[in-house]
């Protein structure tokens, strides 16, 4: 049975650039993001790369890969999660993520798991949940 943990994410940096024509919709963008995880996952200054699609000026979806290095429930190592989500006109973000198989290192080797977060504008840090197994 997977372990269940919770915590918070604080966004530290967001750098977004257009990927193609910036004045059309739908349009694509790329973002390089730095986050800090606290709680069950302790990871400072993660590295995250997103590809974003804007269906309208304020709505769309995204996929991304995030490298987390630090501790998970007291065990040290690193792992990568693949993220997929959407954002609404009011700025609310819904995201699910899954550990990329084979990316766990150190005491996190063999890690698998899935998680989710919802970001509401103005909420910082915002909560996440994560269910995992260390095989």
Q: Strand share of the residues?
A: over 45%
- The dominant shape is elongated
Structural class: mainly beta
Give a count of the beta strands, DSSP E runs of length 2 or more.
9
Widest sheet, order of strands: 1-2-4-5-6-7-8-9
Count of helical segments? 0
In whole angstroms, the N-to-C terminal distance is 10 Å
The SSE string, one letter per element, is: EEEEEEEEE
Radius of gyration: 15 Å
The overall pLDDT, averaged over residues, is 96
How would a textbook summarize the main sheet?
A: 8 strands, antiparallel, barrel
Q: Kindly state the percentage of residues in helix.
A: under 10%
Question: Key terms for this structure?
Answer:
mainly beta, 8-stranded antiparallel β-barrel, about 65% strand, about 0% helix, about 140 residues
Molecular structure report:
The chain is an all-beta fold and 135 residues long. The chain has strands at residues 3-18, 27-39, 41-42, 47-54, 60-72, 75-87, 93-99, 112-119, 126-133. The protein has an 8-stranded antiparallel β-barrel with strand order 1-2-4-5-6-7-8-9. It is elongated. The N and C termini lie close together (10 Å). 20% of the residues are buried.
Quick take:
The protein is mostly beta strands.
Question: Secondary-structure blueprint of this entry?
Answer:
Elements: E1 3-18, E2 27-39, E3 41-42, E4 47-54, E5 60-72, E6 75-87, E7 93-99, E8 112-119, E9 126-133
Antiparallel strand pairs: 1-2, 1-9, 2-4, 3-5, 4-5, 5-6, 6-7, 7-8, 8-9
